[in-house]
Specification:
Elements (H helix, E strand, L loop, with lengths): L1 E5 L15 E3 L2 E2 H11 L5 E5 L9 H4 L8 E5 L7 H14 L6 E6 L7 H13 L5 E6 L2 E9 L3 H5 L8 H4 L6 E5 L14 H17 L1
């Protein structure tokens, strides 16, 4: 199984790339969910980035022998045109690898609190239920990554348009899946950093988590 890590986005509300932003000195926002994917037991992770991304947020892992062989950088020239282009680039990269995956794990670079355990739970569901097309996460009814999508949906993923993500497919009657819902304090694991307010929340949560260790 391969991973697709969507790191090409830039929030128009923040007006700057999000992934290099530090939640704590030396801890880049974009590095955290990627570490979770890499630690979950999946194989190669295709990291979809914009052409102008200097990849400074990724430097530590690219230089780490533990992770380096798992990382594959995919430059999406059309990233600014919408998420669908990044998804397509990631799926194409996964399909060009050997062996071809029978499913892909999709993760977002701006969800810093996703854990390896969350990904492994989805992997377990897919293994126990070979008849379903996907397993995904949700908060308040909104379905989102991390998600695992079987090859029965690859053509549909590649056919997405504009800024359309996989959420549309999760609601389609053509596909069957299982949703893992998070609520209460656990819902914060799926925090999506998309503006200054959510960035401040993420910084505070990261500091609090460090304080409990």
């Amino acid at each position: 199984m391969s991973g697709i890590y969507l790191a090409a986005g830039q929030s128009s509300r923040m007006g700057k790339p999000k992934l290099p932003l530090e939640l704590f000195p030396g801890i880049a926002l974009g590095s955290l969910a990627l570490r979770a994917l890499l630690s979950s037991g999946i194989g190669r992770v295709h990291i979809v980035v914009r052409p102008d991304d200097p990849l400074a947020w990724l430097a530590d892992m690219r230089n780490n022998s533990r992770y380096a062989n798992q990382l594959h950088i995919v430059v999406c020239e059309e990233a600014s045109l919408g998420m669908s282009y990044s998804i397509r680039s990631g799926v194409d990269a996964a399909l060009s690898s050997f062996p071809k995956p029978d499913a892909v794990v999709i993760g977002l670079g701006d969800q810093p609190f996703v854990t390896a355990a969350m990904v492994r739970r989805l992997l377990s569901i897919m293994g126990e239920r070979p008849e379903i097309d996907f397993a995904a996460s949700s908060v308040d009814g909104a379905v989102m990554p991390p998600a695992i999508i079987r090859n029965t949906m690859f053509n549909a993923l590649r056919g997405l348009k504009g800024d359309m993500g996989a959420r549309k497919l999760f609601g389609s009657p053509e596909y069957n899946g299982e949703i893992v819902a998070y609520d209460g304090e656990a819902a914060e694991l799926l925090l999506d950093v998309d503006d200054e307010k959510s960035l401040r929340l993420a910084e505070r949560r990261y500091r609090d988590n460090r304080g409990r260790r």
